Amino acid sequence: MRHIPNLLSSFRIILIPLLVYLVLRGEMFFAALTLILSALTDFLDGLLARRFGWISPIGKVLDPMADKLTLITICILFALTLGGRFWIFFAVLVGKEIAMLILGAYLFKKGIKIEGARWFGKVTTALFYLTVILIALVPALPYFAIYAMLAVVTVCALITGVLYLPAFRAYHRSIDPS
Q1: Which residues make Cβ contacts (< 8 Å) with residue 166, sequence separation at least 6?
Q2: What is the 3-state secondary structure (H, E, C) of 44-110?
């Protein structure tokens, strides 16, 4: 039973190729359902891991990796399918996620045990999912609505990245006190 959170994170990674297929075929309703399933399994794996103490070292890597791979994939897909009008938002979001992946990999390589995501990271992830699900489900959304939603998500993501910097510095100081 204690492996259920890791199985759910793995399932989210397996959903990514299905998501790519659905978006590229223009099946946005089913893509949105896939995103909803991904979001629900993300919520459930975290809930189970915390509630029952099923937190594992692999889960601490697998869960954020599933989050970041899903987010990066969605950003690339939406940047391609929305006609390029919103590419700057997706580029910033991808850049922030890649930076977080690199910093996390660096700490992991140095043997630093990383805490789970903080509340502000969870809120930003939920806001991102909500935004892209709305964009997928309501193809007739006006330009300004999409722009506004993506602007809010991007600003929140940047703030989240900045809020994680002190934690990264503290982790880094624990391995290199100079």
Answers
A1: none
A2: HHHHHHHHHCCCCHHHHHHHHHHHHHHHHHHHHHHHHHCCCCCHHHHHHHHHHHHHHHHHHHHHHHC
Helix axes 119-137, 28-52, angle to 10 degrees: 160
Residue 39, domain CATH: 1.20.120.1760
Q: How far apart are the C-alpha atoms of 31 and 9, rounded to whole Å?
A: 18
CA geometry: angle 35, 36, 37, nearest 5 deg? 90
- Looking at the structure of the chain, the number of domains it has is 1
Q: Report CA Rg, the chain.
A: 17
Does the predicted model carry a pTM greater than 0.90? no
Contacts of 106 (CB under 8 A, 6+ apart): none
HSE-CB at 133 with a 13 A cutoff on CA atoms is 15
Q: Per residue in 94-141, pLDDT tens?
A: 999 888 888 878 877 877 766 667 778 889 989 999 999 999 999 899
Range of the domain at 139: 4-175
b/e per residue, 108-121, with b = 16+ CB within 10 A?
Answer: eeeeeebeebeeeb
